[in-house]
Amino acid sequence: MLRDEMWEEAARVVRGDVRGLLFLRDDLVRRWAEPHRGYHDLRHLDEVMAALVVLRPAAIDTDTEWASVVLAAWFHDAVYDVESPGDNERLSADLARTTLSRSGIQSEILDATCALVEASAAHDVTERRGPQAAFHDADLWILSAPQDRFDGYCADVRREYSAVPDADYVTGRTAILRPFVERASVYRTDHARLHWEAAARRNLRRELDRLADVG
């Protein structure tokens, strides 16, 4: 499985405690498979990993950068609680720092991984290449997905927040999605701008129209 292969490659680069890293990966899989998750599940993790592979040749220069991006992907939604969405990225970064430290990961990669996880809260990246740009775009690949998959993603997110009344959900979700349309570009890397941008804008406008109809 691709996500396991990428974990193993990152583990070879960081040269941490092999047994400890294996147990850590198993714990992360358990977290990603929690039943309350709709969109933020193992499928999302797999899609982020696949997108990173596509972006790697033109955006990532070193094995160390690659290891930090892969670890960030594994950790970025490891903590996911719909009751306190503003804390998820911070708590996921804290989990990464604590558990990776125990496995002997060098501080350079540890700091880079945690910074990437924390940055996923705002999706506010200016770099056009490098780990920040690649991870930003991979995490947002879903916005450019084929229509059926994008619509499924929207339904999955709504299911995660099924306890939220429609009016409140429309307000909150619109506030999250509209800024992407208002940006000069949804994505940062050249590859994503060329190959994903147009589809993402079509999908976002369609979802914003649907939300407006509900509201």
Automatic annotation (TrEMBL):
SUPFAM superfamilies: HD-domain/PDEase-like (SSF109604). It comes from Knoellia flava. Gene3D superfamilies: Hypothetical protein af1432 (1.10.3210.10). InterPro entries: HD_phosphohydro. This is Metal-dependent phosphohydrolase.
